[in-house]
Please model this.
Amino acid sequence: MPTTYIPTVVKDDAHREGVWGVAWSSVTDTVITGSLDCTVKCWDGASGDEKFKLEGHSTGIISVDTNRSGSLAISTSIDSNIRVWDLENEGKLLHSISAPPGEAWTSKCSPDGSHFASGSYSGHLNIYNIESGQQVSSLATKKQFIMSTAYSADGKYLACGAETGIIYVFDVETSQLVHTLSGHAMAVRTLSFAADSRTLISGSDDKRIHVYDVEHGQVAAALTGHNDWVLSVASNPNISKQQMASAGSDKQVKIWDLGMRQVLETHEVHVDQVWGVCWNSEGTKLVSASDDKSIKWFAASGSG
Model:
């Protein structure tokens, strides 16, 4: 029988405005959220209690992420400000990076925790050193707005999705473009590598989710089920489960079986579009964040 995910903790009015970004720190068991109210908040991953609030951004938060160890958080805002926070020291600000206008959008940490990549309006994928806060390189695409980024778990690949529906996949070691993936008709707002590091999942404004074989540069499956833009996809880090979660403008959170290529369950717990979903490191819980200002937790049956 497939695992059932049960809604557990609910945080209504978690922020004063919509919540656009969410991440889960594995070591500190902290859920990090970023909102249009210009704040980043950290929540206890088990109880949902607020731990501390990170302030300093002057415009709305686009994305949040953590390094693999869970010790650091990264946030990016609409004005291209990037901030690096120390989660082990109550969110102490380590770096405030003012990128040129339009040169910082969705940012993701590398698996080894040494760098993070940020998309941009100009079509560049900018790479920063986390320790120094300095930009160290820039990968060029086709001058299309890069809206989403993702590293593979083994650190081999770095993918980014453009407003045109094209996905670019780079070899991290050589910084060379290895695949240009097509198939989507509209913007790719979200990307996630599966735990095997060879399967890339994308979500698009065309209401579709694509599953790509990155090694061969081919579409393995096109999944339908959402009735509006797909705003977030997240692969379950437990490779044995072969699951992913998705969320979209249709206010739905869906759990998928990647092996069977089908929806296992649909949750309608939000009253506005859902911008983010993410899993805990064990793949037993997930959390969703929405324009309705709320955060919702789900737990696999039997996981507590």
